[in-house]
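Quick illustration, no need to memorize.
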Amino acid sequence: MIFLHGSGERGADVEKVKLHGPPEIVATHPGFPFILVSPLLEADGDWDTAKLGRLLQQVRKDYRVDPNRIYLTGLSRGGHAAWRWAAERPDLFAAVAPVAGTGNSAIACRLKDMPVWAFHGDNDDIVRPIGSFAMVEAIRQCPGLTAQPVLTIFPATNHNSWDQSYRGDALYRWFLEQRRATPAPKQ
């Protein structure tokens, strides 16, 4: 599982990555059933999918990674990047779960065969939930759709929809149910 954090965790302090999402879960539940990759984005930086691809390639070289079960998730800035990277490289991932992120609906059909579960707060005034609605609806309209995308909207929730998204085991069970029909390429 690759987890991409949000803007608030950028910088030089790697401990900040543990504030939210899967890294926070791993810190308190060491039996987490994934190899978790949580890169740290430099201050004022944005996620570079080419760099992320090189990181994934190195992880696959160094660890026993099932190429049929590589999962991608991220929150806020990381949610934007999860949409983007999954659309750029749908051949790599078994599933994607963007949280409080917006994608480019013009390329949404690249995700028509990938399981998608997006999350957003209905009162998010930082990243408007219309971006998640637009992506999911664009995927649903794709010819030859093979994987119905799911969108969970949390009522009375602002930007921090990640606490509800990542706590509990529903998302993790869903990830574990997903696998690619053909192995991800070595890159």
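The helical segments are 21-28, 49-62, 77-88, 130-140, 162-166, 170-177.
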